[in-house]
Specification:
mainly alpha, 3 helices, 93% helix, 0% strand
């Protein structure tokens, strides 16, 4: 029971943090925090600039943007899945309707075949009766 509650708490915190960290607001705040120190001190060598750019720019600024685009992509995927689910339901209803109509058509065909057989027998009887009359 404690493991379930802990898992629920962890999932809740992770969802909230991932949402907050994957917003464009976070991107702007981190970008501001990255650029402000450059106004006071700048790296002095190529190695220092490279290290600064790799660690701060890519890790600090790029990650919120990646999270934001991943969330947008996930939202689009959810919309597509929901649309497909609705379409699947419609298709299933259409298939059920078609199956019912096929059953009705087969039943009607069966009735027509029975009537056709009955009418054929009656016509044969009439033709034979007419032949007998003509013979007399």
């Amino acid at each position: 029971m404690k493991k379930e509650k802990l898992k629920i708490l962890n999932d809740y915190i992770a969802d909230k943090l991932s949402y907050i960290l994957a917003t464009m607001t976070t991107f702007y705040v981190v970008t501001l925090l990255v650029i402000l120190p450059l106004l006071y001190t700048q790296p002095t060598s190529i190695v220092a600039w490279t290290s600064y750019l790799c660690s701060v720019i890519f890790q600090g600024i790029a990650l919120p943007v990646l999270g934001y685009t991943a969330r947008k992509s996930s939202d689009k995927s959810d919309k597509i899945i929901n649309h497909l689910d609705g379409t699947t339901d419609q298709i299933e209803k259409m298939v059920e309707t078609i199956e019912k109509q096929q059953e009705q058509m087969l039943h009607i065909i069966s009735i027509l075949e029975q009537k056709d057989e009955h009418m054929s027998k009656e016509l044969d009887d009439i033709i034979e009766a007419e032949k007998r009359v003509n013979e007399i």
